[in-house]
Design goal:
Elements: H1 11-20, E1 27-30, E2 40-43, H2 45-51, H3 53-60, E3 71-72, H4 78-90, H5 98-110, H6 114-126, H7 133-143, H8 146-158, H9 160-165, H10 174-181, H11 191-209, H12 215-224, H13 234-241, H14 249-260, E4 285-288, E5 293-299, E6 303-311, E7 315-323, E8 332-343, E9 351-360, E10 364-368, E11 374-375, E12 381-387, E13 391-397, E14 402-405, E15 408-417, E16 426-427, E17 429-435
Parallel strand pairs: 1-3
Antiparallel strand pairs: 1-2, 4-17, 5-13, 6-12, 6-15, 7-10, 7-11, 7-17, 8-9, 8-12, 13-16, 14-15
Helix pairs in contact: 2-3, 4-5, 5-6, 7-8, 11-12, 11-13
Amino acid sequence: MDDWQNKVHSMSLRAKFAVDHKILTDCDFTFGNREKDSQVISCHKLILAMTSPVFHAMFFGGMRYDGDASIEITDIEPQVFRQMVQYIYLGQSGISSYKNACDLYHAGKKYILLHLERQCIEYLSEHLEKENAIQIYEFAQFHGEDELERNAVKVIQNQASYVLKDESFLHASESTLATLLDSDRLNISSECELLAAIERWALAQDIRENTTESSARKIAAPLIKKLRLLTISKHEFVNGVATSSLLSDSEKLSLLLRIIGADYPPMMNGLCEKRSKRKPCREIMNTILEFDEVTDALCDGSEWFTSVFTTNTPVVLLGIEINLQKRGEEGVYKENLMVKVGLAFKEDHFAEESLLRTVPYNSTAQVMLPYPPLLQPGVQYAVHVFLCSPGVYPLGNHTTLTCKHTNLELEFVSHASWEQCHPWNTTVLSSLIFTDVVETDDAKVNADE
């Protein structure tokens, strides 16, 4: 094709044009059916090697591949590999669904495309919903994505009644269900919900494995022992347990006798002896600070910002979110900051945590407190943020002082910087992260003392 170089105006688009039209390509990837052109993806070794350490080793390093042979890909679907190539050439991932994000993450991890991995995790975090929470939890656990895993667990706990009835529950692994049943906090009306869900799950395994119905009890045996059946009422026993195929008649009788009279011997067959009901789990809430204007401020690595606020009802302060350093282009840097929480105008503090890790510019970061304090209404509290990494931070001028969430109000009294080196009522805070006092037993500090 004559003069193709002038048909597009940027280097990345020229490279994409060249790969789309197979101009100067010098390596082919096949996916099982070599006769179909749609199953052959042609690329440029140099461009692949410039993006991926694996491709560099494959074409120019110790893993050098025979240049005359096509490279067969057996663990990535052609459309996903093509999507990865599009990212390499244009920097655009084009993620279309949570499943697509999981598949693309696998491709990015295989070829050590760290930025692509991060885009996939960001997509999954933004599209985490009750319908896909179990799949995303299992994906995050398998790949060691701890923050995504924790967020998925919270969705499962908060939406437990829905998740237990959803089709996705039937495809969960046994270890996932064991984790769910080990939780002290689930939004369910009764333990009978869990029993019915486990029974549906076990029967679904029978159907998939083409075994007999009697094996459902054997499949579910480790999970049954985690059910707190002693917490149900006589009415729930009659309507929810008596007809279950997962318990034997002798186990049902043993359970009923202990529901009626607590002085009977321990439960048979290792069934759970707990009589404490699972506690409800409330959704974590954010109070977002609204700014009239944002200014860029150069911080020298010894900045100290303080925000004073009150609440109208008891809450548990889980953490904060802050605005990270700004930069004209994408990239990462090593953030170093400390957060302390205490009574306003007091030197002492009752909660603290540090953030010391590599983070992207032009973004936000959450700092979660390891021992979330219980805050009481009518008391003024202070959040201190110490910035120890020199750089440019966006400071918001916070003039809307009251943030509401349902019947809860958090009112910011003031924002200030150490020695007043920045304008009054400016802060690096983006939001406070809190929940109802029922959310966590870790709220051991009564912060009005």
